[in-house]
Amino acid sequence: xxRFSQDLDAQLNELSCEILDGSVPVGSWRRFVIxxxxxxxxxxxxxxxxxxxxxxxxxxxxxxxxxxxxDSYACRRGxxxxxxxxxxxxxLRRHPWLVKVDVRRFFDSVDQLVLMDLLAxxxxxxxxxxxxRRIVASYCTNPGRGLPIGALTSQLFANTYLAPLDRFxxxxxxxxxxxxxxxxxxxxxxxRSECEMVLAxxxxxxxxxxxxxxxxxxxxxxxxxGVTICGYQLRREGGMRLTRRRxxxxxxxxxxxxxxFHDGRIDARDLQREGDxxxxxxxxxxxxxxxxxxxxxxxxxxx
Length: 303
Hints:
The chain is an alpha+beta fold. It has helices at residues 2-6, 8-21, 47-66, 81-94, 106-109, 112-122, 126-137, 152-161, 163-172, 192-210, 244-262, 268-280, 288-292, and strands at 29-35, 39-45, 97-102, 177-181, 184-189, 219-222, 227-229, 232-234, 240-242. The strands form three sheets. A four-stranded antiparallel sheet has the order 4-5-3-6, sandwiched between helices. It has a three-stranded antiparallel sheet with strand order 7-8-9. A two-stranded antiparallel ribbon has the order 1-2. Helix 3 packs parallel to helix 8, helix 6 (112-122) runs antiparallel to helix 7 and helix 11 (244-262) runs antiparallel to helix 12. The relative contact order is 0.12.
């Protein structure tokens, strides 16, 4: 990044020429593992390619955005996880039954030929489409399958990949309501039997059209029992409860900041910033008492 920025004009000019003549290099990744909370292998593009991805998004994001329904919330301006949760609360109060599903090994299972067919329907321009094809083909988990977690293009392409499912739910089987956050999908129906029929149709559609399978942890339940989505636990009557996952994340951020402050590696201002981050993880939930109990910094134990 430093080397790129030190000679910015020349680097951007070279990148522009490589894009135009089709020789821009793709497929260089920095691989690492995170636990948030489950283990994920991240493939982050090198800085040169991240600049390329941002440039590409200026061309492909508008037409792909127009293909998405209003009830898809991941990786979109003006939406996000909180908007998804708020919309789910509306459906939870209106409709009696729900189904919650997510896709088994979603990013690893994306069929690249199917993805390119979806992109070709929306993106105009052979050079742009060829660049998208090269980026998609630069990574695979199995021959012809997979998108890397950690790339900007992957987020947009993965969201586009499930857009046909949104249309299927809303326009073919006519569910009463739905929300989708990447591969986490909830829809609402009028009865359990209706939920089961739609679920069977969704399984068939995913297998035939998108070459995907659902996880076994499918939930079919009355809306009165509530649902968890995007780390928030929703109840039909009441607000949003704090989940164990968000409590754990908040406590880890706070404990790390306390440890760094005690070791003299950050000052009081940085400690406050980290405290704000820990607090923000739990905002919008009915957890005032829990937050108050953790606002007072406990001194570290004597060595």
